[in-house]
Write a structure and sequence with these properties.
The chain has helices spanning 15-27, 38-45, 64-73, 89-97, 110-122, 143-155, 172-181, 203-208, 225-228, 244-256, 282-287, 293-299, 316-330, 340-347, 354-369, 405-422, 433-437, 441-451, and strands spanning 8-11, 32-35, 52-55, 80-84, 102-105, 130-131, 134-135, 162-165, 190-194, 209-210, 222-223, 233-237, 258-260, 267-269, 273-278, 302-305. By secondary structure, the chain is of the alpha/beta class. It folds into 3 domains: 8-122, Rossmann fold; 130-305, 3-Layer(aba) Sandwich (Rossmann fold); 329-388 and 402-451, no CATH class. It has a 5-stranded parallel β-sheet, with helices on both faces. It has a 5-stranded parallel β-sheet with strand order 9-12-15-8-16. A two-stranded antiparallel ribbon has the order 6-7. The structure holds adenosine-5'-triphosphate. Adenosine-5'-triphosphate (ATP) is lined by residues 138-140, 166, 168-174, 237, 279, 355-356, 359.
């Protein structure tokens, strides 16, 4: 679902200026409304949302500065960019003190105006959500995210085990941090263990620690992750990857909060809260005999499912602006502009790598934009509209605005094939398919396997960008 940016209003008694600003903004894809007087605009401002107003100072009747005061006293928080032919320093100071975004003089510089517009447009939504416990790092305003945050508010203060389920890159780790942050353990450590990256022989030592001489290479005592998390939270990421033979040891530690370091028979205790996460269907893993049923039930106390990004496209504007700001800051490069056309492109893509992929795509776009409009280099542009017509049997007018599971899988499969073909089936590396999709090579390989993709298979139709 595409979330439109509200219109930008231009108030100027000079028709030439109105047209020039209108042309510039429409070329960037913004919707524009024009007004020749402050009074007409004041009436409009009360009726419907707008992104910002480009406002002349010297206007017949009510001046721009008077209008600014009038809007403020009516409680209307309209971002204002002043554009004046007779600017003076005291006047601009007065306007900026009263909260204007920018004070520009005519003839105006297009980049300055677009920069100010960008600032105004990004401020239309607040980037952080307020929750009961203050500000959260979880960005999003969709119903899905709000429900997830309210479930987190419920479970965080308890010591209950939480199992976070979701596709790769959906933000499972972000949610785990949020639960810890909102818990009574917030001042204590949050220890993350990536269960997929531990060599098989080291699992036990990694979880429970070892004593000097316990095995070749154990030169000194080592504290395991359980002990390190004492008093805090232990986040078991990618729990579905734990080998079967270690699962029983883990189960005991979870049940009794007791364990022994490798090579030591003294029993230790740790007071830890467990959060686990996986992108696997653990129920299916149990059925296939790869995951212990008792461990599954021990973990699945409070399941928290996070939807893939394609099911919460309303979050894209907020996330995109957040990542654009972040990229500019982290990479010390100029801020790029997010145009409505760019936003629409982001909202029409399938995002198999979810938020991680979005973040990578935006980072590349910010580097390439060099302070201009961001252009997104997506592996495939899905130009077909999402709504899918129903078959002929159903009466006309019953159009679906969603995809069924088989249709979604087909899209994902087609997209993977396009990316694999584009990269010559190169999986790893900066120009590999995993990087393009914004997912880990191991995740890509497991998807290729799961979907039974083969190199000889005809690729999906590539839609020209
Ligand atoms: N709601 C969100 N708000 C802000 N940033 C987010 C959000 N969700 C995810 N991210 C960012 O997206 C990236 C991927 O998130 P994260 O690592 O939490 O995903 P994950 O589901 O744990 O992935 P994996 O299954 O591959 O481990 C990170 O850079 C994270 O900061």
């Amino acid at each position: 679902m595409s979330v439109p940016i509200p219109p930008i209003c231009v108030v100027d008694d000079d028709a030439g200026i109105r047209e020039a600003v209108e042309g510039l903004l429409r070329a960037e894809g913004f919707e524009v409304e024009l007004f020749a007087s402050a009074q007409r605009f004041a009436a409009r401002a009360r009726q419907a949302p707008l992104s910002c107003v480009v406002l002349d100072v010297e206007l017949p009747g009510l001046s721009g500065l008077d209008l600014q005061r009038e809007l403020a006293s009516a409680g209307l928080d309209v971002p204002i960019i002043f554009l004046t032919g007779h600017g003076s320093i005291p006047m601009s100071v007065q306007a900026m003190k009263a909260g204007a975004i920018e004070f520009l003089t005519k003839p105006f510089d297009a980049d300055d105006l677009l920069g100010a517009i960008q600032q105004a447009v990004s401020g239309t939504h607040s980037v952080e959500l307020e929750t009961k416990n203050g500000t959260t790092d979880v960005i999003g305003e969709s119903r899905v995210i709000r429900q997830t945050l309210s479930r987190i508010q419920m479970v965080a203060p308890t010591d209950s085990t939480v199992l976070i389920l979701g596709e790769t890159g959906t933000g499972k780790e972000v949610l785990a941090k949020e639960i810890h942050r909102c818990s009574r353990r917030a001042e204590k450590p949050l220890i993350r263990v990536n269960c997929a990256s531990i060599p098989k022989d080291l699992y036990e030592s990694e979880f429970f620690g070892h004593v000097k001489g316990a095995f070749t290479g154990a030169f000194k005592d080592r504290v395991g992750r359980f002990e390190a998390a004492d008093g805090g939270t232990l986040f078991l990421d990618e729990i579905g990857e734990i080998p079967l033979d270690l699962q029983s040891k883990l189960l005991r530690a979870l049940q009794e909060r007791q364990f022994e370091r490798v090579g030591d028979d003294r029993t230790k205790r740790a007071d830890v809260r467990i959060i686990a996460a996986t992108n696997r269907d653990l129920g299916a893993e149990v059925a296939a005999g790869r995951f212990r049923e008792d461990l599954y039930y021990r973990l699945n106390v409070f399941p928290l499912e996070i939807a893939p990004l394609r099911d919460r496209m309303e979050d894209i504007p907020l996330l995109a602006r957040h990542f654009m700001e972040l990229a500019a800051k982290e990479m010390n490069c100029p801020r790029a502009r997010l145009t409505p056309a760019g936003l629409a492109m982001l909202q029409n893509y399938h995002w198999p790598g979810n938020i991680r992929e979005l973040r990578n795509v935006i980072e590349r776009a910010v580097i390439m934009a060099q302070g201009g409009a961001a252009e997104f280099d997506l592996p495939i542009t899905i130009t077909e509209p999402l709504p899918v017509k129903s078959s002929g049997e159903e009466p006309s007018g019953t159009e679906r605005d969603f995809l069924t599971e088989p249709e979604m899988l087909k899209r994902e499969r087609d997209n993977l094939l396009v990316v694999l073909e584009k990269t010559g089936w190169k999986i790893k590396g900066a120009d590999g398919a995993a990087e393009l999709l914004g997912i880990k090579p191991t995740t890509l390989l497991s998807r290729i396997k799961k979907m039974g993709l083969r190199r000889s298979e005809p690729a999906a139709r590539r839609v020209p960008a």
